[in-house]
Structure formats: C-alpha cells, structure tokens
Amino acid sequence: MTKKRYFFTVLILGSLTALGPFSIDMYLPGFPAIAKSFHTTTAEISLSLSSFFIGLAAGQLLYGPLLDRFGRKRPLYVGLAVYLISSAGCYFCSDINSLIVLRFAQALGACAASVASMTMVRDIFPLNQNAKIFALLILILGASPMIAPTLGGYITEAWGWHLIFVVLGGMALVILLTVIFLLPESYKPNPDYSLKPAPIINSFLTVIKEPQFYTYAFAGAFSFASLFVYVSASPIVFMEVFKVSAKTYGWIFAALSVGFIGASQVNNLLLKRYKSEQIIWVALSTQVVVALLFVIGSWYHWYALGGTIGITFIMLCCVGTVSPNASALSLAPFEHNAGTASALLGAMQLGLGALMTLGIGLFKGGSALPMAGIMETTAVIGMLILAFGSKHIVHKVEVSEHAVVAH
C-alpha cells in the first residue's frame, strides 16, 4: 500500500468511526433551543440522546452478521443511507416523540459506519499494525469532543438547531461518496453465512467462547467504561461541585480529551519496543492504582479543582493506552468472522459503559467520590478479568509492531 493510499484509507476509516460521536456531541448545545421549539423540557430532550445510545448498542449486533454475509461496503451503504434519511427527518420534525425515534434510526445508521471501520482495519492492514491503526482512529475520533460541541453552539446561535442536522447529513454524504469512490471492498460476500437467528447466535457464541476474545474484550470494555463514567459525571463534578462556568467546563473537557487521545498516540511509540499484551498489563495496573488514589483523595478531600483535573487526566491516559491494544488483541484470532467479533466488541463496550453510568445517580454532596469509586470498580474488574482470563488462552495470537505470533 502506497503512503497516499495508506493516508486516505486511515482518514476514511477514522471519519466513519467519528460519525457517531459527532452526532452526539454536536447537538448537545442545542438542547435548550430544541426544548423551546417543541414546548417541552430539556430533560425530555435528553431522551433523544438515550435513544441514540440504545440504537448504537443494538446496531452493533445487527451489522456484524450483515458485514460477514454481504461484504463490508453494501451494509455500509445502507447504514449511511439510513443516516441521511433520518438526519433529514430530524431537521423537519416538530415534536419530541418524532425526534426520539429519528435519533434511534440515525444511531443505527451511524453504527454501520463504526462497526464497518473497525472490521475493515482487520481486513486491510497487517495484523501487526492493527493496534497502531486503532490508535490513529482514536486520534481522528478525538476531534469530536474538542470541535463538535463548540461548532454546534455557534450553529445553534447563528442559524438555529435545525441546521445542525443539515451539517451532520452533509458530513455523512461526503463520507458516503469517499467510501464509494476511494475505499476498496476488503471482504468478499460469503453466501454460506446464514442470517437465520440460530446460526447468528451460534456465531456470536463462537466468538465469545474464544478465550483471547473474552479476556481482552471484557478487560478492555471495563477499562473503557471509565470514559463513559467521566463523560456522564464530569458536568456534575466540575460545574456543581467545583462551581466552574459552562465555558470553563468546555475548556476542561477539551483539555482532558487530550489525555485520552494523546495516550493512544504514545501507544504507537510503545509498540515499537513492547507487545500489546505487555502494554495492557502495565496500563491497566496503573489505572487501578490511580483510581484508588482518586477514591482515597476524594474521601479525605485532598483534591481541589486542579488536583481533580490532574488525576482524571492520568486516568484517561490509562484508558487511552488500554483501548487500542485490547481491541487489537480481541480481534486478532478472527479472520472470516471479524465483522461479528467487531460488532460484539462494540456492543460490549457500549453496554458496559452505559451500565456503569447508572451509578452516577449516587451523586449527593460536594465530592467527586462517586465518580472515583465507579472508576476504581471498573478498573479492578478489568484487571481481574485480565489476570484470570489470560490463564485460559492456549493459542495466543500476539500483536506488536514487529511480530505476529500464534502459540
């Protein structure tokens, strides 16, 4: 693959991965305006965000089998078409119930882009480059929390919230055209792959029974859940506990995103000297220790605003290091059903992340302790899974910058 082809392939796959997060972050500043337009409350508008998350989780399991049966691009075309139609519907809708349904449909479309991009990494690039490519996708993905909310705020203020969905639809259209003309089909359709419920369930069971998959997928998903907890709890911690303004919170959110994104890129340098497996052990162990210090410090009120930002930054660095390596090792054993494995991995990450955020309701009083406690819980569970699961991996497929070894 030429350098030019390599660059455009990574850029297209990164754009596919970022479509869903942009769809979440860009319309958040428009909540009050949407509520006013629909004569309802901001709390009810947030249900459209909940339906989006549900659509993403459900879509993970839907597209995996489709990608393995029909190839990568045809299901992707369908998903992007659904996204375009539902974006147009969001622009024209005039009540909350319609928005909730349309956002669910929009998530199903965005999910096709996410699952296909992860699967095509496994198809297109050598196995020993997968962790590096996943880290590059995270770099592109990182543009969302730093650009989308600000852009959405300017659009809402200047032209109204409806135009946000025009912009999102325009992004999807550009992505669709680049996929059609610049992205090669990476997997031939498999007519022998059955779409009947029983074979699909058996396919998912086959994937999850693979020790290397369930070890690194679950360990990585619990580590990744800390990111969901942070996103859900950070408005409360920074704006209610530490009383910063919404503008200041935006800058804090952007700065902390640099930790997650930057760590994923430092991971590329680490892969030149260490195996993905070694990096995960160190990063997840560090995450457990840092989260414990966060819990103790929050209990004794050691951390002011600066300290809380600093220790959260380190936590997100750990997550950003674990995530690409866990994804690469989880998918490494699969070649013919990589779509199913990728979909199951995504569903696990979204599902566990959403489940862990339920504990955010524990926030009472002026402390970051609930956020720290849930982060420690997820890190410890991930570490235990890694420790016990590794013992059951008989034929390990290792991934590093220099070697692909099955033993």
UniProtKB/TrEMBL annotation:
Domain Major facilitator superfamily (MFS) profile: 9-394
Pfam families the UniProt entry points to: MFS_1 (PF07690)
TM stretches of this protein: 45-64, 76-94, 100-121, 133-155, 161-183, 213-231, 251-271, 278-296, 302-322, 343-363, 369-388
Keyword Coiled coil applies: no
Organism: Mucilaginibacter panaciglaebae
Name this polypeptide is given: Multidrug effflux MFS transporter
NCBIfam families xrefs: efflux_Bcr_CflA
Matches recorded under CDD domains: MFS_MdfA_MDR_like
Keyword terms: Cell membrane, Membrane, Transmembrane, Transmembrane helix, Transport
Cellular localisation: Cell membrane
SUPFAM superfamilies xrefs: MFS general substrate transporter (SSF103473)
Family note: Belongs to the major facilitator superfamily. Bcr/CmlA family.
Membrane topology: Multi-pass membrane protein
PANTHER family: MAJOR FACILITATOR SUPERFAMILY, POLYAMINE TRANSPORTER 2-RELATED
